[in-house]
Amino acid sequence: MTNTVPAGAHDPARPPASQEGLEALLEILPHRHKPGLRAALSGPDPSRPNYGHVFVRQELLASALGLIGLGPSWIRPGEPIPIRFDLEYDARLGPRLVISASDWPTPAQAAADAELRRSLEEQGRWWQSRAPERLRQLFALVPEDDGPRWAALALQLQNLDECRIVSLAVRPVDLDDADAVHQALRDAAEFIQWTGADAVLVVTGDRRTGGRAFSDPRVVEAACDLGGALITLAGPVPTLVDALAWRSSPIPGAVQAAIEEVLRGELTRADRPRLDRIEEVLTRPRMAPGIEAWPSDAPF
What we know:
Blueprint: E1 22-29, E2 37-42, E3 50-56, H1 58-67, E4 81-90, E5 94-101, H2 107-122, E6 137-143, H3 148-162, E7 167-173, H4 178-195, E8 199-202, H5 217-224, E9 229-233, H6 240-244, E10 247-249, H7 252-269, H8 272-283
Parallel strand pairs: 6-7, 6-8, 8-9, 9-10
Antiparallel strand pairs: 1-2, 1-4, 2-3, 4-5
């Protein structure tokens, strides 16, 4: 799977991949003329040629798809499976063909995403969130079974929570279930309303390869209606929810840096002289009546 990161950066969750390769669509066809499954292999664009058909035993295809991170639901007729063919060269084994799942949307999916965004923009509901001025409370939507990206970021956020710098509220959710993600985002909006939380972190990058939960209209609309700052730990292919975030990156260290940038901003804007005067008044001994009890410049 192609993973694009800034120059000089490295995403520890995924190894670097070749930028060359062939994108294709594997579609399970509904009509069976012999035991097993019949599938069509074609280019990702309607104008591209059809690469032909293949017959394969169902259990073999299920095993192969499992190896590249796709669940059994993909072997039923319906939405085409985006896959990628790459040719890699190993110094010991020589050239080899690598087949992997592709997270890039199909042309039909990309068109649907663009139409959804256009509709939300016309309604005045689409807006990219801004960075919060402070970060005291953070609500995080994380994968139920952890994930490589969340695991790389969790320790840093837990440290901020233990140091009583940022109060962290974690909500595990099935990132491949659009209903569950939709409900979790609604809960996040209520959390912001009732507690005044400053931001919501969504780990969109630990979803299943090819998962479309974060392009579901209900999920995107719920993200638009959060009422607070949104930051996402994304995958190699951004989703509509990632486009709404004030900061989105597939690199856990970049998300951590964005959070620390907000905290540094708090330090920069802090009125240190006023805080020092308050500390002076509250800690110095009480004075007898008639003696000046306040500094010459009042702390307000």
